[in-house]
Amino acid sequence: MDLLKRLKTAFEKVDLQDQKQLFSTIQSLHLSIDEVSQFITPPQELEYGRNVIFRNEQAEVIIVYLPSFAKTLIHDHGTSIGGLFVVQGKLLNILYHPDEHGPLYAQTEAYSQNDIFLVKGETTHMMFNPTLSPVITFHVYTPPLKDGKSYSISK
């Protein structure tokens, strides 16, 4: 069965708001780089490529491509929670505390191939590829993204 059909089936009858079910559903897909490579989008306006490959009332699935030394914007996910699976590569998830003057650095987490981690709506973060090899990540957000914010850091 192709990936899009598997996503439709996997996300039909599961409570993705429950972190254990979200993670186990993502892990049950047994994702490989071969399977997601057709959905990789090269960077255009941003440093990274981003492709929404599936969306229903409950979930939105995105493939993110981070070339070497690329980073996402500092952002949050509004009211959505997300399960992020590293399909290929190594990345740093840099966490921030919101502040009236802009986001303040809090901590850095390191993840590599086959790792999965959670971002809650209030999580403010940036993903960074510190390597010479590309990073490919698979994101499932529930409910679908609609009210997240991006931040800039004043100098």
Automatic annotation (TrEMBL):
GO terms for molecular function: cysteine dioxygenase activity. Gene3D superfamilies: Jelly Rolls. Keywords: Dioxygenase, Iron, Metal-binding, Oxidoreductase. The keyword Thylakoid does not apply. InterPro entries: CDO_1 (IPR010300), RmlC-like_jellyroll (IPR014710), RmlC_Cupin_sf (IPR011051). It holds the Pfam family CDO_I. It comes from the Bacteria. The keyword Plastid does not apply. Its EC number is 1.13.11.20. Belongs to the cysteine dioxygenase family. This is Cysteine dioxygenase.
